[in-house]
Design a protein that fits this description.
alpha/beta; Rossmann fold; six-stranded parallel β-sheet; two-stranded parallel sheet; 11 helices; 8 strands
């Protein structure tokens, strides 16, 4: 497939590398222009392009940008065909993104993203840490393989997203409609807890929408107070422990 990825941070770059390695035609863009990521894209096996080129003549667009930047993409998708699947990997953190009234009032993150870009999105790859995505992938069928939830309203787009998640080394779990994607947002039992498929399904069902923002804030304060001393395993374990109360 032809895949455009907008966002060359840890998540976007890792997805680009994994998908390019298995033969997909990957184009990578960022906010500063292709020259700023030419070397990175080459190392990943992708082509450095502009944002406009990343959404032109492609089958899939993966958005992996800071959450607060989504309103700037409104015009970008105006002429993109409806059959192009758009995947949102982002998460909302008020300390970084500023407070967004709609989300504070309960609008799921990827529903808000869809409203900003003017077209439906599929939510995937948001519920794993960057290290998990880069280092903990496993072949399909491996016992204990980590699972990733995928939510969306378009069945064709969701199926494509699930296939790509699987291709990056993780079991893909259908997490339902986009309106239910809050179940895989920060502060829920499914978020960054490295669960298997059998564990992820009940974790999604156990999510508590009212408590999740408080859990999210408590965890990020703890992680920031750790000043980088917490290991990856520490963060996964704390996510599990704090959200266990659902």
């Amino acid at each position: 497939m032809k895949i455009g990825i907008i966002g060359a941070g840890h998540i976007g770059a890792t997805i680009a590398k994994k998908l390019a390695a298995i033969g997909h035609d990957v184009r990578l863009a960022n906010s500063k222009g292709p020259e700023s990521i030419r070397g990175l894209a080459r190392d990943l096996g992708a082509a450095a392009v502009s944002k406009e080129e990343a959404v032109t003549d492609v089958d899939v667009v993966v958005l992996s940008i800071p959450f607060s930047a989504y309103p700037s993409l409104t015009d970008l998708f105006r002429d993109v065909p409806a059959e192009v699947t758009v995947i949102d990997t982002s998460n909302y953190y008020p300390f970084r993104d500023g407070s967004i009234d709609a989300i504070e009032s309960g609008t799921p993150e990827s529903v808000w993203v869809s409203e900003q870009i003017g077209r439906p999105a599929v939510k995937a790859w948001n519920a794993v840490l960057a290290y998990t995505l880069a280092e903990k992938s496993q072949p399909e069928g491996t016992p204990g393989r980590i699972a990733i939830p995928v939510a969306g309203d378009d069945e064709k787009g969701k199926t494509i997203a699930m296939q790509l998640v699987n291709a990056t080394g993780f079991d893909a779990i259908d997490a339902g409609m986009l309106a239910q994607s809050w179940r895989q947002q920060p502060g829920t039992p499914a978020y960054c807890t490295e669960l298997t498929a059998a564990e992820l399904v009940p974790a999604l069902a156990a999510a508590n929408q009212e408590r999740a923002p408080a859990y999210r804030e408590a965890l990020i304060k703890e992680f920031m107070a750790g000043h980088g001393k917490l290991t990856h395993e520490d963060m996964v374990m704390r996510n599990r422990e704090v959200t266990a109360g659902h």
